From TrEMBL:
InterPro entries: AKR2_Oxidoreductase, NAD(P)_OxRdtase_dom_sf, NADP_OxRdtase_dom
The protein's name: Aldo/keto reductase
Domain NADP-dependent oxidoreductase as annotated: residue spans: 15-287
CDD domains: AKR_AKR11C1
SUPFAM superfamilies the UniProt entry points to: NAD(P)-linked oxidoreductase
Organism: Candidatus Salinicoccus stercoripullorum
Pfam families: Aldo_ket_red (PF00248)
Taxonomic classification: Bacteria, Bacillati, Bacillota, Bacilli, Bacillales
Length: 303
C-alpha cells in the first residue's frame, strides 16, 4: 500500500476507509471490514461526529481499539454540525471556538483516544468567523489534543480562505473523473493533501455502473443528462473496463488520498482488487480520461 504524507507529518495510506456507511447495526460485519482493511495495509479511517449522531465514532473507536497492539493506524473525524443525539437530528451549524473545543472532548471519548490524528471542519460558510475557527484548531494542536487539522468543503470561497490563512494539512472534496471540480484547486494547494471522498461517484464508476445509473441518476447530475452520463461511462470503460481502477489511477495522478466508503466486506474486497490493479497513468492516459468527461468548476460560493 502506497503511503502519502501530509505537510505536517501524517502518513496516510493512499487507499483509506470512509466509515460513514459501515453497518452500524451489524458490528460483527463492521469489524470484519475494518480488520480486512488493516490487513490490506489501510491505515487511515475517516469518520465524523455527525455520522449516526456519534454512534459511528463510538463503533469505529471500539473496533479499532482491539487492533491497536497489532497495527499502526490513524483516525480522522469532523466537527461543526451541532446535533441532538437523543432526537437523532442536526440542530445547527456551529464553527465557533467554544463549540469546537467541547465537541472534540466528546469525539475523543467516543473514539476512546487521548489525541486525534486529524480533525476536520465538516463544512464551512463565508459568513463564519473563520479566524476564530482557525485559532480553535491551532489551540487544540498546540495543546496536543489533535495532531493535524483540515477542512471538508466544496465552497470555493471557504477553501480559498483556509488555503491562505490557515495551516490546514488536508482538504476533503468529492473527487473522481466525473465530478472533477477539484481540478481547479489541486494545482494551487501548496502542500495541502487532497482527500477524495466519493471516488466511485455513488457506484457509477464501478462494475455496477448500469444499475446505478438507472437507480440513482435518472435525472442526471452536475450538468450531465442521464444519456450523457451513460455515454461518458461507456467512453471511460473503453480506456479501462475496471472503472474503479480507472478512478483510482485518476486520483493517484492528482496526489489524492482515496477515502472510499463501503457497507460490506464484499465491497471492500472489490475495491482492494481494483486498487491492486491500478497502474500509474501516463500523461496520454490521463488526458484520455479528461477528453472523455466534462471539465467542471464549482459554480456557487465563489468570492
Amino acid at each position: 500500500m502506497k503511503i502519502l504524507n501530509t505537510k505536517d507529518g501524517l502518513s496516510l495510506s493512499e487507499l483509506s476507509l470512509g466509515c460513514m456507511n459501515l453497518p452500524i447495526d451489524d458490528k460483527a460485519e463492521a469489524e470484519k471490514i475494518i480488520e480486512a482493511a488493516l490487513d490490506a495495509g489501510i491505515n487511515y479511517f475517516d469518520t465524523a461526529d455527525l455520522y449516526q449522531f456519534g454512534e459511528n465514532e463510538k463503533m469505529v473507536g471500539e473496533i479499532l481499539d482491539k487492533y491497536r497492539s497489532r497495527y499502526d493506524f490513524l483516525i480522522g473525524t469532523k466537527v461543526g454540525n451541532q446535533f441532538d443525539a437523543a432526537k437523532q437530528e442536526k440542530t445547527a451549524w456551529n464553527p465557533t471556538a467554544p463549540y469546537i473545543k467541547e465537541a472534540v472532548k466528546d469525539s475523543l471519548h467516543r473514539l476512546g483516544v487521548n489525541e486525534l490524528d486529524l480533525y476536520q471542519l465538516h463544512g464551512g460558510t463565508i459568513e463564519d468567523n473563520k479566524d476564530e475557527t482557525i485559532q480553535a484548531f491551532e489551540d487544540l494542536k498546540q495543546e496536543g489534543t489533535i495532531r493535524s487539522y483540515g477542512i471538508s468543503s466544496v465552497r470555493m470561497n471557504v477553501i480559498d480562505y483556509y488555503k491562505k490563512h490557515s495551516a490546514i494539512a488536508t482538504l476533503m472534496m468529492q473527487f473522481n473523473p466525473i465530478d472533477n471540480r477539484p481540478l481547479e484547486v489541486t494545482d494551487e494547494l501548496s502542500g495541502i493533501r487532497p482527500l477524495a471522498r466519493g471516488p466511485l461517484m455513488k457506484g457509477l464508476l464501478s462494475a455496477n455502473a448500469a444499475s446505478v445509473l438507472e437507480k440513482k441518476f435518472d435525472e442526471g447530475v452536475l450538468g450531465y443528462s442521464k444519456d450523457e452520463l451513460k455515454a461518458t461511462v461507456d467512453a471511460l470503460a473503453v480506456i479501462n473496463r475496471d472503472l474503479t481502477a480507472l478512478s483510482y489511477a485518476f486520483l493517484r495522478k492528482n496526489g489524492a488520498v482515496i477515502v472510499n466508503g463501503v457497507s460490506s466486506l464484499r465491497q471492500l474486497e472489490d475495491n482492494l482488487r481494483s486498487y491492486r490493479h491500478t497502474e500509474d497513468l501516463t500523461d496520454d492516459g490521463y488526458n484520455g480520461i479528461l477528453e472523455a468527461v466534462k471539465i467542471l468548476k464549482y459554480g456557487e460560493h465563489r468570492i
